[in-house]
Amino acid sequence: MGRIIVIGIGPGEQAHMTQRAKECLQEADSIVGYSGYVSLLGEEYTQKEILSTGMKREVLRCRLCFEKALEGKVVALICSGDAGVYGMASLVYELSSEYGKVDIEIVPGVTAAASGAAVLGAPINHDFCTISLSDLLTPWELIAKRLQTAAMGDFVITLYNPSSMKRADYLQKACDLLLEILPEDRACGYVKNIGREGTATWTGTLAELRAEQVDMFTTCFIGNSQSFLLDGKLITPRGYRT
Ligand code: SAH
Question: Which atom of ligand 1 is nearest to the CA of 113?
Fold first, then answer.
């Protein structure tokens, strides 16, 4: 029986990959993934069959995994961060009914909210939610509703996919919606290229975040009513001291 292992490789460098992810990559006959992520794996797995596809070819990539698995191969499908957070894990299950019996394993990885939080200090140390600003697969009205209800619920909010070439003003649009509910001085931050070359951090207020230009390799953090900035770090207390 074939096997597909859906692996979250973490934010970037090898040090942030789990032991299980490394073992599975070693065990795999074929490694399938977006070419940008395949190159993050470095030289270690070059003896494997590497099948990389461009962005936005997710369904094709998954079908390729099933085809290879049905040939009896162990296939590693790699995703950045965690495979089940805006990743491919669900699509593999959705497509599985179209194929014969294939064993599926999901290997968790460090998602950008967690790895970015570690760089920024401790911004998600209380209830938080993640919202993706990409409206490729989700209507903007729903994204807007989630932003505003998260703000009303006083959640810390992490924003994935905050911007892209086509969506250059989406972070600004999101901040405008949040500013209808949250104060201008709400503590915020972002991290770019977490665990990769060119890691950069920024902290400031929500009004200042609105004026920032970020790219698609950035994760943004909007604090809750208790969050504060401390020497360039963004901290959300758990409440131990009260
Ligand atoms: N499965 C991934 C998320 C994929 S969605 C995970 O669990 O992390 C893609 C978005 O994730 C990016 O637009 C960015 O907001 C965030 N992201 C992923 N890797 C990142 C990194 N190394 N540095 C900063 N943000 C990252």
Answer: 8
